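__Record contents__

***
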Amino acid sequence: MVLQRALNSNGMHLIVPLLTVHVNMHVNLHTVPNASTVLKGPLSAPMFIQGDYIYNDQPMADGDTGPSPYVFAYFFYGKAENQSFWNNNDAMILGRTTGAELEQSQWMFFCGSMTNEQWCPDLADAVDIFSYPKMLGENMVTFDAASNRFIFANYGFYRGDTGAPYSWWSPVVEQRRWSQLTVFESPNLWGPYSLVYLEDNWRDVNAGYTPTFPAAWIHGETIGYNIVFQMVHSGFWDDYNFAVQQYTFKVTVV
C-alpha cells in the first residue's frame, strides 16, 4: 500500500491568540536527570511518535503481539555539527525507551537495516533512518492505522534567489522567507521513507514551518478510499500563528 500524491489541498488561515493543548505522555520525571547524562547533542530534541500503533498494536521484540513495552522517538540532527536544530537538519535517527526517559543510558538506538531490525545502546552505532541534507526540520511523525503507514510532514527553508538550503538564523533576512513542504511515508518505523507530496514556495514568501498531522484529525478507514489529513502549522511570516490546511490522499495497493 502507498499514499499517492495529494489530490487536492485547501488552505485556511486561522489566527489563535492563545492555544492550550493538553497532552497525556508517559514520561518519567520523578528524578531530575544529571546534566552530563541527559539527552543532548543530536538527541536534544526527541520527537515522540504519535498514534495508537505505539501503545496498542506494536509487536513486541519476542514476536508476540500486544501492548508495546516501548516508547519511540525520532531525533533530527545536523551531521557536521552533531547537534539537533530547529530547522535545516541533515538526517534523523530512531530511538526507543521503556518510559520516555530523559537519561541517554535508558535508550536504545536503531542500528540495523531496512530488512534487519537491530537495536544498540551506543549512539555511535546508530544508523540514519532518513536523510535530506540541510532540509529537515524537527518533525512529528504520526502512525495512520487506515493506511498502516508512518507519515510526517517536513519543512525546510531555502534561499529565494538560488534555491539552496538556508537556515533561519542566516544573516540575510530577506532571503530566508521561502520554505518547502514535503510529506513522507513508510511502512516501518525504520523506513524506508518515500516522498508523497512536495510543494516548493510553500505559503508564498511567508515561510510556513512545523507542519504536523494530528492523529485524531486523520479520517479514512478503507483501503482504496481517500484519507483526509488536517495539517496544523505555524508561519505566514508572523511567528507563532496557528494555521490549518486540509490534504486528501488516496490509498492504493501495489
